[in-house]
Amino acid sequence: MVLTKRVIPCIDVDLDEDGNPAVYTGVNFEDLKYTGDPVEMARAYNRAGADEFVFLDITASAEGRETMLDVVERVADQVFIPLTVGGGIRTTGDIKETLRAGADKVSITTGALERPELVNEGARAFGSQCIVISVDARRRFDEGGEHYVEIDGESCWFECTKKGGREGTGIDVLEWAAEAEARGAGELFVNSIDKDGTKDGYDLPLTKAVSETVDTPVIASSGCGGPEDMYDVFTEAGADAGLAASIFHFDEYSIEETKAYLDEHGVPVRR
Amino acid sequence: MSTASSPQEQSLASVVVVDYGLGNLRSVTRGLERAGADVEITDDPDAFAAADGVVLPGVGAFREGVENADPLREDLLEVAESGTPLFGICLGMQMLLTTSEEGDNEGESAVQGLDLIPGTNVRFAEGQKVPHMGWNELDVRRDHPLVEGIDSGASETHRENGSVEGGSVDGNYAYFVHSYYAMPDDENAVVATTDYEREFPSIVANEAGNVFGTQFHPEKSGETGLQILRNFVEICADE
Q1: FRET label pair with A222: which of A130, A193, B113, B139, CA 20 to 30 Å apart?
Q2: SS3 category, B17
Q3: CB atoms < 10 A from the CB of B186, how many?
Q4: pTM, to two decimals
Q5: Could you tell me the domains of chain B?
Q6: Residues B134, A99: C-beta atoms closer than 8 Å
Q7: Mutate which of B30, B108, B129, B228 to disrupt the A interface (most A C-beta within 10 Å)?
Q8: pLDDT tens, B180-195?
Q9: Main localization of the protein (chain B) (predicted)?
Q10: CA-to-CA distance for A12 and B223, rounded, in angstroms?
Q11: Residues of chain A found within 8 Å of residue B227, distances taken between Cβ atoms
């Protein structure tokens, strides 16, 4: 009996032209492709054996946020597995209303970078277990970092970015991960700007460096092209959960196939 | 196809979910409805007394939880006293015990739980990944109506296709998220255990059997969780 590794599908939800919530999936970094209805997809993944479900609100507007809470409620009604919701969370009020809508955890990126006390406040009021700190890491091969790893013979550090990688912060991901954990984060959600949409595997050096830095669970994200990539991130990089979007959304692999592969290769999964 | 998400048509029992201002009440409500209960979310003590069963939900920190629930303390103790089933989930289960190391940190004074199952909630060891977060197995140690149909030990059944109602789980995996675990003074209070580098109690119950709790979230534990919720609703219906 051991704690299993988690396989997690993730949806990015925006409003379509008519103001209705819709799932979009990034293809080749930039292009967003309409993928489906969030509630239907949640229902399908719940049934397909997903261990958790991640819902990221990628709308920017206030109206979008209202609509999203309504969608979160409808998604929560469909899933009997944990639901993490992220996007635009900046205050304890945002955390509270997201949890009230049915989320089990909230994922916070910019809100916590800009005001780190939010992590303490959220953990104190709602418990560490529901505070997921998400980082959008970018590889930097210059001298601005604090912690370096070697990648292809070069020294690399990882920078926290904002706005999906369009804005740098100068903050070292490993410094921030340790700080977020000390402030009460219950889980770290590690995205890689370099790997996002590539499908050539997770950023293993990044994931490994973060899991060696913190004791809290690490969810690896960005770059999953198939079950082998999940196997690598679990066995080589110490991730506790592997997140993927397009391989599941576009039916390249099912959750069951992914878990069967992991199981056959000795990775404990819930089946 | 959409029937999988609709509540059962006939309610088997009326269940109150205690609203003490914290956490996600929606999913536990949906889970209970799915298990056949007629659910009311309330902080009205009169409703507790009238219900067939009471659920003390929980997400969050012990101190916050106990402080928020404090105005309802006497009412919850009365529920337990009267023999009505009282089901604590996660933090709600921890609140059934006497105290917690969690409420005792940062130089603050100890926070008293409900003391319905004497014992303490303790933190996982240093160096262990906390929270213990994810799917882990239940090892049923003794009979209790809450674990009816939940096999002891390792799972044998395997999900054969994607059509399993309500979720996707088989075997006895349940979803945990916690950094503290219950240590009842009386070993007989332990109904099931789970292994996370150490064995810890994952289901506990009082001597009378009407007060019990799960460290995991049954409402988030797919089919195994729904079975436990159905068992709870049965217990309530039998009252």
Answers
A1: A130
A2: strand
A3: 12
A4: 0.85
A5: 12-238 (3.40.50.880)
A6: no
A7: B129
A8: 999 999 999 999 999 9
A9: cytoplasm
A10: 27
A11: none
